[in-house]
């Protein structure tokens, strides 16, 4: 038996099929992955993501340290509650993990992946020399992601009951990548689905009652299976699949998360990235793939790419699925930058696929052309 | 709970077989198998006229989660294929024992039927 979140009994109550996920007993699906997926695209769904690791960073050097530790620049977080997505890189520029960092009233809050928790903490501890910072894990907090077109309205009513009408107005008025602290709750307009929604960090002791209120308001419980199809439709990376320590953010569609300016900010991995940037056109790229023929794209499948000079070179699918919204195969794949045409090797048959910008569905609608 | 109709025979690899009056057999995947797979979104159908040997891969069923081979439970020629599954693969989830049938085979060695499992034995395996 693995670790259980504060909502484990609620998952069983909702009929979840439980699997081991990074040492945690988590719901992979309740009834039907496709129904759960569609609920988030069309209505609202709630994900228990309490297995993810929350680390609060405090101390006089918190900001300066994160500016060194992370490829994106926390100085860009102007106001309390603001969030940004970033890679945490090693000296070679490889991605140790991807994470969200929030500016809190005091210090910062990081949310890192569950499967990478131990190595992340060990890495952070090893990089503290010369900085006065404290790291505090927050296992007493649960995380609920409430996502979908109805999500914010429903959360607003729950916040009004639990806190006050002005607080609920604050929550419904939150801009994307902004959050607000209410007592020991933190509610932010972030998510992993491509829909509007919030992520709520709240005490474990309150989580089951809030879960019940959400379900009573018509929010559907969503398992990790649909979490994966939703994030892939949104074109969002999954650590350990689309990138890892051997992959540069420049080859993982994470170039936009590297804050090159100010040039004097010497963050971990910067030198390696600058060297890579000199010959960027030779680096492989993470692209989206669309297969309109029948079938499903899967992680690990070979992508045969025809280059500009007519030669061929292989790429690989890093995440693939059947898109429940679009009803065809979609994938993220690492391919040569100058690939002109691509075909995926499915059981020995080369099936043509179309490279597109990563990102397939936003707000319930197809986004690529 | 999964259903295991008594009038069918089963392979350990989760296919079911129904012997028809004309001596041909209809084949599909069990209720238990479709539950394990979850939402089925694509089926690589066998080809009519294909000759298959028992235990050979004859088709692939893909759900959102996984791709899974279907093995021929019996040797013979494929004489009919459920083409409706091409447009509605989810029928295999909703109706595994009737509308979700996969194909019909004319057995070349009907004695192979005796090697298949009865409903109780197969159900016991799936527990």
UniProtKB/TrEMBL annotation, chain A:
Q: What is this protein called?
A: aminomethyltransferase
Gene Ontology MF terms in the entry? aminomethyltransferase activity; transaminase activity
What is a single cellular component term in the Gene Ontology annotation? glycine cleavage complex
Record family assignment = Belongs to the GcvT family.
Q: Which InterPro entries match?
A: GcvT, GcvT/YgfZ/DmdA, GcvT/YgfZ_C, GcvT_bac, GcvT_C, GCVT_N, TrmE/GcvT-like
Q: Report if keyword Transferase is assigned.
A: yes
Name the EC number(s): 2.1.2.10
Domain GCVT N-terminal residue range list: 7-261
| GO biological process: one example | glycine catabolic process
Report keywords, A-Z. Aminotransferase, Transferase
Q: Which residues form the Aminomethyltransferase C-terminal domain?
A: 286-361
Q: Which reaction does it catalyse?
A: N(6)-[(R)-S(8)-aminomethyldihydrolipoyl]-L-lysyl-[protein] + (6S)-5,6,7,8-tetrahydrofolate = N(6)-[(R)-dihydrolipoyl]-L-lysyl-[protein] + (6R)-5,10-methylene-5,6,7,8-tetrahydrofolate + NH4(+)
From TrEMBL, chain B:
Q: What is this protein called?
A: Lipoyl-binding domain-containing protein
| InterPro entries found in the cross-reference section | 2-oxoA_DH_lipoyl-BS (IPR003016), Biotin_lipoyl (IPR000089), GCV_H (IPR002930), GCV_H/Fam206 (IPR033753), GCV_H_sub (IPR017453), Single_hybrid_motif (IPR011053)
Q: Which UniProt keywords apply?
A: Lipoyl
Q: Phosphoprotein as a keyword? A: no
User: Which family is it part of?
Assistant: Belongs to the GcvH family.
Q: Which GO terms describe its cellular component?
A: cytosol; glycine cleavage complex
What are the residue boundaries of the Lipoyl-binding domain, all occurrences included? 24-106
Source species: marine sediment metagenome
GO biological process terms, alphabetically, are: glycine decarboxylation via glycine cleavage system; protein lipoylation
The UniProt entry, under Pfam families, shows: GCV_H
